[in-house]
Amino acid sequence: MAASDQVCANLPPLLSSFVDAFVDFSVSGLFFPTNPSPNPNPNLPAAATRIPAPSRLVAIGDLHGDLPKSLQALSLAGLVDPFSARWTGHDAVAVQVGDVLDRGGDELRLLYLLHRLKLDAARAGGALLTLHGNHEIMNACGRFRYVTPAGLDEFKRWGFWYRSGLAMKRLCADLESPRDPFKGVPKSFPGIKEEFWEGIRARIAALRPNGPIAARFLAGNQTVLVIGESVFVHGGLLQRHVDHGLEKINEEVRKWIMGLSGSHAPPYLQGREGVVWLRNFSDGSNCDCSHLEEVLAMIPGARRMVMGHTIQEQGINEVCDARAIRIDVGLSRGCSDGLPEVLEISDGVKLRILTSNPVYYDERLKRPWRRPVAKEELEGLGMLVPETRPQEMEAKA
Question: Could you tell me which residues are beta bridge partners of residue 325?
């Protein structure tokens, strides 16, 4: 009898875990360990804003809902096996600078994959760290300007499976009744085609502050990271942002995503000069280098700022003597379908572009750095890229 009582006592949490695993697999095709191993690397505390430089650091730009191209970029960096989608980066540290959402139809699958890779990397002594981009912030605010029909379909499917999971949990009287994230979400959206209503409802429920997807996959994002001598941010930092406090920014944004500080995003996330919107150091060759130097001087040990957000059609490049490094290559098919590239920083000082572009792949032509090129040069390069894309994808995938 005692053993039977124990089984019955354990049934509700076992049922809850089974349902969660069932929903995860139905949405993403992935399973997650129920008891993830702790990160064996003491230099990578959870939710840290400042981290010592690892021996190998990789930075990856905007992904925008394109799973195949994201896997190509991760594989190019030697971080992921493209066939099994498992971590192969050992103790490397990787930073993805935000904008996983919008413009594509693989947004949820990318969020699930990145989460699984974080667990894999931690077990190997490495880390995959993710930042907020302006598109994560927009979606948490319910602004879906750049959502695609495929993206709405993906969230509609998530909504079906998530609510099925809620219904299954309610069958067990001993389980606490789970919160319904759809409560309070409008059921109709006048002016929008009815075929998209369920996708919009699910997207609002999932991504608003304290929504299931926001709390699980976005709340762990940082807004700013300092790793060794490199400052990572999606848009950029101004002096007033540093004055506010980088740790304070990260903590305040986390609380907002978790629904602990109201529905409105903090003001430094909004407007052209918000940390996820700023283009002062990433747009074109005219960069305010003196202002950038002043900002970096306010952050102890910082030598460079690494940013996404602004598509660099010629690939990863630098200005201001490599004080500003721009890594958004627009790889998503929903953007400019750019050739995957990633930034590698070895031992905190040696910087290298890893590129799949055959124009630069030949060692005789490859350069450790690129500067922004003039528009007339871009036109010439643009004529080469479409011809070489299919060969490059096959060779590097």
Answer: 306, 318
pLDDT at 8: 47
Residue 200 lies inside a defined structural domain of this protein: no
Q: What is the rounded end-to-end Cα distance, in angstroms, of the chain?
A: 58
Q: Cα(32)–Cα(19) distance, rounded to whole angstroms?
A: 13
Query: How high is the pLDDT of residue 371?
Result: 63
Residue 266 per-residue DSSP state? P
Annotated active-site residue 291? The verdict is no
Where in the sequence is the domain holding 121, given as residue range(s)? 48-144+211-396
Query: Total structural domains in the chain?
Result: 1
Query: Do residues 232 and 96 touch, judged by C-beta distance below 8 A?
Result: no
**DSSP H or E run through 5:** helix 2-28
Alpha carbons 373 and 379: distance in angstroms, whole number: 10
Q: Is 219 exposed, middle or buried (0-12, 13-18, 19+ CB in 10 A)?
A: buried
| pTM higher than 0.90 | no
Indicate which CATH number applies to the domain containing 136: 3.60.21.10
Contacts of 194 (CB under 8 A, 6+ apart): 188
Sign of torsion, CA 266 138 308 283? negative
> What pLDDT shows up at residue 368?
54
Kindly state the percentage of the chain with pLDDT values over 90.
72
Report pLDDT for 364: 44
User: Residue 387: what pLDDT?
Assistant: 30
The answer to whether residue 364 is domain-embedded is yes
Q: Calculate ∠ Cα 62-64-67, nearest 5°.
A: 105
CA distances from 289 to 3, 275, 293 (A): 70, 17, 6
- Residue of 29, 155, 157 whose CA lies nearest to 101: 155
Residue 192: CB atoms within 10 A of its CB come to 12
Which of 196, 190, 192, 191 is closest to 156 using CA atoms? 196
Rg of the chain on CA atoms, in Å: 22
Distance CA 346, CA 366 (A): 18
User: CA-CA distance, 75 to 80, in Å (whole number)?
Assistant: 5
Residue 167's contacts (CB-CB under 8 Å, 6 or more residues apart) are none
Q: What is the mean pLDDT of the chain?
A: 87
Active-site residue identified among 115, 135, 234, 241: 135
Q: Given its phi and psi angles, is residue 47 left (phi above 0), alpha (psi -120 to 50 degrees) or beta?
A: left
